Amino acid sequence: MLNVAVIAAIIFGLRKLFGASGQRSMANGVQGIFQYALTFGLLMVVAVGLSGLLASALGSGTQLVTNQSELARNVTFTVVGLPLLAGMIVWIRKRFHNDPNEGHSIAAVLFVLVASISALAVTMASATGVLYWAFGVSSYRSSSAGQFIVWSLLWLGLWLIQARVIPRDHNQIHYILGSIIGLVTAGVGLVRLIAATIDMLGTVIPDRLVSTSDHPIAQAAVNFLVGALVWLVYWLRQAVNSQRSPLWLVYVLLVGVGGGLVMALVSTSTVIYRTLVWFIGQPIATTIEQHFRGASNAVGSIVVGLLVWWYHRTLLGTRTERTEVQRIYSYLIAGVGLIASGIGFTITLVAIFEALIKQNVLVGGDAKNTLLASATAMLVGVPVWLIYWRGIQRNVQADPDEELSSPTRRTYLYALFGVGGISSVIALLAGVYQLLNDLFNSRLNLNTVRDMRFAVAVLVSTASVALYHWLIYRQERDIDVRQAPRAKRVTLIGILDPEFVKLVIARTHARIDVLERTDDSDTQWPIDAVVELIEQTQSHRLVVVNDASGPFVIPIAD
């Protein structure tokens, strides 16, 4: 009874504090943040308590728990947290009942996002533990089973709540984050699976899957399965067909295309470098097994990286006309290849310095290994850069007005000669400091040249990149950059119709706000008339009012 009385007093006091009629509009935002933050905390507390109690009940043996402190914590979290959580849920439900637009609020969207991702992370970790036990990788752990049951149900509940109360366009960040988590987990699992399979075949131990204690293939398969299921739910069922917003393009271009290609290029460089060092360089290891240890992970990374790159590349389409998204892709890959080439060129200069001063300070204890590292980086990076940069230049020749006015091209040039210039200045300062430091301390000798080798190499390579792209920019700087169409901001005043709003956004690409009329709840929105009004109005800000006589527009000054 005491607990109930305390809980009731807390809820009553909070409602009195934030539920007063005076200054309601000003306090409403703070009230919402407080409510959702407290609800999130209580949700996590209750989930921890329930999963702990369930783990104790699912534990093997006759004793319910072995740690009385954990029992006290779990009971406290459940007995105290559950009624408080129920009270907060009732309170939040009233917010949605009183304000149909509550699902659009930042606090509500952020609450569902953070709570869902938190539940997803714990569900994935506990599911991995349960599957390890199911595949015989590890012994039974009741904590994993308890966490999986409670947190998976919590995640499912939040998923259903999100579908009901949060607008779909506000859910994209949740779907994208879940897709990234699933893709990374599945990718790491698949890399480990390929590597473990190669190791098993290479050691000619056919029963490695079941005879060893670590079970690398089974572990990798479980990780891949968990990540693939999450990616399937979040990406293939939700995000892939959502609006191609900047967030969607960031995922596809940076995470999928860029991340996959970088992963493949780095891993390819690793394999080529180790092979060259073994045959013509100075390897440290004395046996081929020691030298190529871990190379199976690089092979797996090549396969997975190319697979991720290829899939996300197909999402960009292969239309005949060149779109801005395709330009972003071309310049992104060209940039990746150029960076790899620049690294290779820098290492080449370092190797030349080492050979001249006969200082063996890098990989393998010999300048030959340094040259092999530079050759590898350039062997991988130069072809990628040449292929995509020549393709870009062909597009410039075919349609110079369209290509040279592209904001993507101008951003690419700015970035390369800007970053290259800054890097050159930093390298110059470092090199001059090392020179003067040795000069003033009367120790100017070959060691000074050795100490300056990295600064000089970086200076030469970055300055070359910056100069090349600055010369291109100088020829094009008088060309006006094409501005992206400015999206109109439209306020609709009429009945609340989420499906109608989605149609208007799809047809006009405008940013829509809705104000619900309280004096007219019957007049439906005519979609064609509203779209025509928005498209024909020159102003970028406008209000569209719908009443019994039809919709009319009110232009607003910017």
UniProtKB/TrEMBL annotation:
InterPro entries, per database record: DUF5671
Identify the keywords attached in UniProt to this record, alphabetized.
Answer: Membrane, Transmembrane, Transmembrane helix
Q: Where is the DUF5671 domain?
A: 33-136, 178-283, 327-461
Know the name of this protein?
A: Unannotated protein
> What's a Pfam family in this record?
DUF5671
Q: Which residues cross the membrane?
A: 35-59, 71-92, 104-136, 148-167, 173-195, 216-236, 248-273, 294-311, 331-357, 369-392, 412-433, 454-473
* Native organism: freshwater metagenome
